[in-house]
Structure to design on (276 residues):
């Protein structure tokens, strides 16, 4: 039991640290200290005073509905988001709504910070992703890692997922019917995480989220608005080239365009632009 509590406190502390790294929108730094203090107070054995020893010991049970001291509303919100994403991932794992369920090795629901201010959305898992069950772990994923690092961030600060959760055979483009069958998972993920900015990586992600057929070359370079179903609050969206496209067209011009898009994202999040 004590081990579980320590694990929970560790998880919360790491979550808060990454939130603060991303400029946490509502977490004051004192929050982290309060949790650490709460943890040390709860785990430290306290010797009863002389007066207390002479008194009969009355143990009053805590009401079951009372949240632990470290479970502030903000921390509770983070834990809820994690649980909801976990439940959604389990739902994805059992999904057979389209034919891709027959050829997949693993589903790739997505991963990262459940409380991220920034979410990257790609189009579909490739071979490496299918094999590992994780998004963006192949060559294009390494390039995305470099882009994220250049932004001064890590994968722990953001969330990464795709429109499709299963790999299309031979990495072909997603079909319209597959997107229609699968995109509700993405919409639910975005509703749970509720980020401030989404980066749509490539044509398919941008077209699905913005419900447009405008070429990616015309969509990139400016901020758009994604209107999540069921949520009143619109979310800013930047579209840019998919890292796989960037690998195929690794020119100074394309790289400069992607970096320009990422700088816009950082400014939108009110984060420092490295190298500025
Ligand atoms: S791609 Fe999406 S809709 Fe199709 S089987 Fe996988 S999870 Fe289900």
């Amino acid at each position: 039991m004590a081990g579980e509590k320590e694990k929970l406190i560790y998880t919360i502390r790491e979550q808060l640290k990454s939130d603060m790294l991303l400029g946490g929108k509502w977490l004051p730094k004192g929050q982290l200290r309060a949790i650490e203090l709460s943890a040390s107070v709860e785990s430290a054995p306290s010797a009863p005073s002389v007066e207390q020893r002479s008194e009969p010991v009355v143990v009053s049970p805590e009401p079951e509905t009372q949240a632990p001291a470290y479970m502030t509303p903000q921390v509770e919100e983070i834990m809820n988001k994690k649980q909801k994403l976990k439940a959604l991932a389990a739902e994805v794992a059992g999904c057979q709504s389209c034919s891709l369920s027959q050829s997949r090795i693993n589903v790739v629901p997505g991963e990262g910070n459940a409380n991220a201010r920034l979410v990257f959305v790609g189009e579909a898992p490739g071979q490496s992703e299918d094999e590992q069950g994780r998004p963006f772990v192949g060559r294009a994923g390494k390039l995305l890692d470099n882009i994220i690092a250049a932004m001064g961030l890590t994968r722990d600060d953001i969330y990464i997922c795709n429109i499709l959760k299963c790999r299309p055979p031979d990495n072909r483009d997603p079909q319209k019917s597959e997107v229609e069958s699968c995109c509700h998972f993405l919409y639910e993920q975005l509703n749970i995480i509720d980020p401030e900015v989404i980066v749509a990586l490539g044509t398919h992600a941008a077209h699905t989220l913005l419900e447009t057929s405008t070429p990616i070359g015309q969509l990139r370079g400016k901020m758009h608005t994604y209107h999540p179903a069921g949520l009143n609050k619109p979310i800013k969206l930047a579209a840019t080239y998919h890292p796989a496209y960037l690998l195929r067209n690794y020119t100074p011009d394309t790289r400069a365009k992607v970096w320009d898009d990422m700088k816009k994202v950082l400014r939108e999040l009110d984060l420092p632009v490295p190298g500025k």
About this structure: Residues 2-42 form one domain. The mean pLDDT is 83.
